[in-house]
Design goal:
eight-stranded parallel barrel, binds 2-phosphoglycolic acid, alpha/beta, 264 residues
């Protein structure tokens, strides 16, 4: 069975001391789980101090972005090579990177390759906008984002990576009470898995982890975790609240079969 993965995407929130306080609170509430990877994606600045603070039996770290070159004259950028000893995962192609910073599928493909080359696990985010869904283009958009985003990888690389389905219209919408219906998520995840099987074979598809992200809260967690083919969640807003995030992790633990593990 694939391991459950719950990622906290803190985006551009929390300075170094605020990040440290949140980790302290999470560390008190979250148990050791061998069957769930709990991954924190703080600001780049907080990665290093948090790497010294976290209990490694409870948490792993992720970066929210990186450059596609290993080094060079790229003012303001940080490479996957520099993140090698700090992050287990790097989020690539988040919809905010695509839509606010204009990242293209080709740039995202180079970043995914850089992450793999540096021995880190990429979390490739894909998903359609509201307009694309309305126009009936969801399947095509997911296919294009996958086939271009993964074009530099082998089947073996893909089998060890993570894909997050994040419909752009369902990100940061929970304050409007707006969530993606689980049956729509199920259809999209089936499309993603079908594309991977066609491009890289059924064995790769069976090993690959697929997450859902977009306004996940404790109330909606169970419904998303029960979806066939979903291995975990990418949580934004609710991950900044230690009560909510610990509840989400506890539910993932239950769905992964429960049972506290003390020897991991
Ligand atoms: P949200 O963010 O949970 O606040 O919608 C999710 C994401 O953007 O990864």
């Amino acid at each position: 069975m694939r391991k459950k993965i719950i990622i906290a995407n803190w985006k551009m929130h929390l300075n170094v001391s605020q990040s440290s306080i949140l980790v302290h609170r999470l560390q008190e509430r979250i148990e050791k789980h061998n069957n769930v990877d709990v991954v924190l994606a703080p600001s780049l600045l907080a990665l290093q101090p948090l790497s010294l603070q976290i209990d490694r039996h409870k948490f792993k770290l992720a970066a929210q972005n990186c450059h596609w070159q290993d080094e060079g004259a790229f003012t303001g950028e940080v490479s996957a090579t520099m993140l090698r000893d700090l992050a287990h995962f790097i989020i690539v192609g988040h919809s905010e990177r695509r839509h606010i910073f204009g990242e293209t599928d080709d740039e995202i493909a180079k970043k995914v390759a850089a992450v793999v080359r540096n021995g880190i696990t990429p979390v490739l985010c894909i998903g359609e906008t509201a307009a694309e869904r309305k126009a009936g283009e969801t399947k095509q958009v997911l296919h294009d984002q996958l086939s271009v985003g993964l074009k530099n990888l082998t089947a073996d690389d893909v089998s060890r990576m993570v894909i997050a389905y994040e419909p752009v219209w369902a990100i940061s919408t929970s304050h409007h009470g707006h969530h993606a219906e689980p049956h729509l998520v199920e259809q999209a995840v089936a499309t993603i898995r079908h594309n991977i099987a066609e491009l890289y074979g059924g064995e790769t598809e069976g090993l690959l982890s697929v997450l859902y992200g977009g306004s996940v809260e404790p109330d909606t967690t169970k419904g998303y975790l029960e979806i066939n083919g979903v291995d975990g969640l990418l949580v934004g807003g609710a991950s900044l609240n230690y009560e909510q995030f610990s509840q989400i992790v506890a539910m993932a633990h239950d769905s992964a079969g429960g049972g506290e593990e003390n020897h991991g």
